[in-house]
Each structure stands twice: as structure tokens, then as C-alpha cells.
Design brief:
Layout (H helix, E strand, L loop, with lengths): L3 E5 L3 H10 L5 E6 L2 H9 L3 E4 L2 H8 L4 E4 L9 H13 L5 E7 L10 E2 L10 H14 L6 E6 L1 E3 L5 H7 L4 E3 L7 E3 H13 L6 E4 L7 H12 L6 E3 L7 H5 L6 E2 L2 H7 L8 H15 L1
Parallel strand pairs: 1-2, 1-4, 2-3, 4-5, 5-7, 6-13, 7-11, 8-10, 9-12
Helix pairs in contact: 1-7, 3-4, 6-8, 8-11
């Protein structure tokens, strides 16, 4: 039987998963609100589907797997608004449903370690909205839901190289500040591993092995490019917008033990050094 995945909010991470599944004979249906993106999806082998209630509900009747990656907005989770009742009706017929959340639901831990059993105390509005969305999806009876809490995402076209090259990268230093991060190809391999080993109700952190201060990542990217790194700026006196400053409101180290022990994942890029080196090598090969 052909496996069919409906991707609600077919963005950066979902597209990486599609690149893994399509060569294996999967049908991937990706939603978008943009007709131009629909044509790009089609060229990539993904069946495009405009964000429409009737169309999505019809698609739900012919898929086995659902990936929810559209982020919440001020009115809550857009996928839940669009097709929550239809998902509830279809729950028992689905093999696997995944919700892509964020490690922001853990809040600030002063650089300490968190895992999937850590109490959830989001300190930002974004984190609180993600937690509310998690809870809303978990409330649907019989839904074979898997929650993936993603750290900072980087990968092709998304990372520090562009900012370093453009001269817009900054090395903001806040003592004790660390972030966890994850390469998009590792997100895809974890999702694929979960599809092979479904465990409804499971929650997984998606991050690499090396939580690190953000200024170290920028420094390493500059060194790889052979350019002068931007100067360090103290967080207290750095001029930043409210959104940028909010990213520094929380500091924690996120454990990825569960994806290794329960899903057998071996990360392609266990730290940012390996990930950045691979990105640069791919640029050289493409050029």
C-alpha cells in the first residue's frame, strides 16, 4: 500500500522530510496559501494543495500520515482551526500524526539541562502559544500524535553564513547564555525514524549534542569563511529590537537522549561545527 503524507504548512522542515520520503515511493501532499509555492512543490514531486477547508478535509480521507508544522498565531493553531474536527473524525484511521513544536515550551533554565519530562514553564509568548497548541492536539481522542520539540533550526539557505558574508552578523555576548540547535536534515531523519517506529503519545526533543553560546557559532562561521568576525557586543548595551532580545530571555541545554535510545537515531551533524562544515562543502560542490 502506498504511504501518503499530508503536510499541513509545508515549510522548511517538512520539505526536508519530503526529500527523504519521495524516493521511497511516498505520496506527499503539501499545503500552501501561495500559488507560486504550489508550482514549486509540484516541480519537487510534492502534490500541492491550497489552504482550504474542503480540500484539506478531502485529503485527510486518503492519507495515512499527517505532519503539522504551521506555527500558531494570535488566534491559536491554524491547522486545528482548519481541520481539527475532521482530524478527530479520522483519528482512528491514521497511522501517525506529528506536531512540530519548540524547545521554547521549557522556558528558562539558566543554562541547565532539560529533557522531555521537565515541567513546562514557557517564558515567552511564542513558547506559551506552542504549549497551548500541543495541549489542543493532545486533547483529540485516539489521535496517534507524536510531538517533536525543535531547537534552533539551520541548514541549506538558513544559517550564519549569509549574515557573516553580508556583514550583518552580530556576536552578542550574554554570560552563561547557551542555545541548542538542529540541522534540518537531522530533523528529517528523526521524523522518518518515528514513522518507522510509531509510538503514539511520545514526545521527542530534536537538537544536536552541543548546546553552545550563539557568539561562538558566528565566530566559527567567520573562521570557516576566512573573514574577520564581527566584534563582541555586551548584551546589556546592545541595540536590539524586542523580538531579537526575546531570544536571549531563555538559556538551557536540551537533551536528545530519547531520539537516540528510542528511535536509534545517529545524528548526521552532532554539533554546529560538523553542520557548518557540511554546508560550506555543499556550497563549494555546487559552485
Amino acid at each position: 500500500m502506498t504511504k501518503r503524507l499530508l503536510s499541513l504548512g509545508h515549510g522548511y522542515s517538512a520539505q526536508a522530510l519530503a526529500r527523504q520520503l519521495l524516493p521511497q515511493g511516498w505520496t506527499v501532499i503539501g499545503t500552501t496559501r501561495d500559488p507560486a509555492k504550489a508550482e514549486r512543490f509540484r516541480a519537487e514531486g510534492v502534490v500541492p494543495l491550497l489552504w482550504d477547508r474542503m480540500a484539506v478535509e478531502e485529503a485527510l480521507g486518503r492519507v495515512s500520515h499527517v505532519l503539522i508544522s504551521a506555527g500558531p498565531d494570535s488566534d491559536g493553531d491554524p491547522s486545528l482551526r482548519l481541520c481539527g474536527p475532521a482530524m478527530a473524525e479520522r483519528a482512528a484511521q491514521l497511522d501517525w500524526v506529528a506536531y512540530l513544536s519548540t524547545t521554547g515550551v521549557y522556558g528558562d533554565h539558566g543554562g541547565g539541562w532539560v529533557d522531555e519530562d521537565t515541567p513546562l514553564t514557557p517564558g515567552t509568548r511564542r513558547g506559551a502559544m506552542r504549549l497551548a497548541a500541543e495541549d489542543a492536539w493532545r486533547a483529540i481522542p485516539d489521535l496517534p500524535l507524536h510531538i517533536f520539540r525543535l531547537a534552533g533550526i539551520y541548514g541549506p539557505g538558513r544559517g550564519p553564513f549569509a549574515k557573516v558574508r553580508a556583514g550583518t552578523a552580530r556576536r552578542i555576548v550574554k554570560p552563561g547564555q547557551v542555545f541548542s540547535r538542529i540541522h534540518v536534515e537531522d530533523i528529517a531523519q528523526v521524523l522518518e525514524a518515528s514513522i518507522r517506529l510509531p509510538d503514539p503519545g511520545a514526545i521527542y526533543n530534536l537538537c544536536d549534542d552541543d548546546p553552545a553560546p550563539p557568539q561562538e557559532v558566528i565566530l566559527h562561521a567567520a573562521e570557516l569563511l576566512g573573514v574577520t568576525p564581527p566584534p563582541e557586543e555586551p548584551f546589556e548595551s546592545a541595540e536590539m529590537g524586542a523580538m531579537a532580545r526575546s531570544f536571549y530571555a531563555e538559556s538551557k541545554r536540551v537533551s536528545n537522549r530519547r531520539i537516540k535510545e528510542e528511535l536509534g537515531v545517529r545524528l548526521y551533524y552532532p554539533d554546529y561545527r560538523a553542520g557548518l562544515a557540511a554546508l560550506l562543502a555543499a556550497e563549494d560542490d555546487a559552485g
